[in-house]
Amino acid sequence: MPAVSDRHMISVLRPFVAATGPVLTGLRDADPFRLGRLARRRALELEAAPADAPPEPAPTTRLGRARRAVRSVRTRFLDRLATSRLPGTPRWSVMTPEERDHWWVGRVGRFTSAIASIPGIGGALARRLPVSDILGLAAQGLVVCAIAGEHGVTGRDDQVRLLGTVLFDRDLRPGEYGDPHDDRVERDARDLTGDLGTAGEPAHDGRLKALARAVWRMGRSLFALGEELERRPQGRWWWRTIANLPVVGALGAYKSERSGLKRAARRAARAVRG
User: Fold this and answer.
1) Which end of the chain is more exposed for a tag (fewer CB within 10 A), N or C?
2) Region (Disordered): which ranges (predicted)?
3) Other CB atoms closer than 10 Å to residue 212's CB: what's the count?
4) If the chain, 274 residues long, is cut into consecutive pieces of 10 residues, what is the mean pLDDT of each piece?
């Protein structure tokens, strides 16, 4: 007999899945250094540039040569951005679902690692809970749902079933337990996302902070599943061992969660491909 009933697990996973929409959108579009905007602008410039444009005349003064060198460095940097794998760029639009899976693992993993370094992100409660486990849970759940979406699995209960399989090795049947869009699910999902995306919020720093708080709350909601958490994909045993050592424990915990995140992503990709 499982420690957590199917009904309770589904009641926890449904708001999590409902909350992933705005959170994944925020993670995809988060661009604190405006790199995505620069990349899209440069891509449009390259498309509009005539192929037979005459070369720029060579400067004759030292100042002119210095300015030309600066422009050349800037142009090379923007050209690399224009061909990078960033949402909204031409490269992104032709990426395969598998390539986007890999991108999501990197984006979610880096973001949750950054959250772990923010003092007080979880308030006083964070001092009594294992931060790396909570953020690792949130990361795995978010990546599973992101991969599901990239492969066309977008129904809430379909994603709940996938989370049950990948994270907890459970064969859930959420269709037997009510409506995935009922008022309670929507209310709990809003509690998880909080002020993410509310009107009047600052475009960058405020949104990133709201996103960090939402990810923390989502991980904490999964942490309520207790003993079932031991089933989730774990990192390599040597990283888990290092995580228990002084001084280097933080590095071990980080590497262990990254390893576990990649395992969760591989499980999810295999499941959605059938």
Assistant:
1) N
2) 47-66
3) 21
4) 84 96 82 52 56 62 69 58 58 80 88 68 55 86 94 95 95 94 95 71 65 91 88 77 67 76 93 86
Q: Which residues contact 157 (CB under 8 A, 6 or more apart)?
A: 14, 174, 175, 180
The count of other CB atoms within 10 Å of the CB of residue 28 is 19
Single-letter amino acid, residue 47? E
Separation between Cα atoms, residue 9 and residue 225, nearest integer Å: 7
Question: How many Å apart are CA 126 and CA 131, to the nearest integer?
Answer: 6
Contact 105, 99 (CB under 8 A): no
- Among 272, 178, 218, 203, which Cα is nearest to 23's? 218
Sequence-separated contacts (24+) of 64-69 with Cβ below 8 Å: none
d(CA 61, CA 131): 58
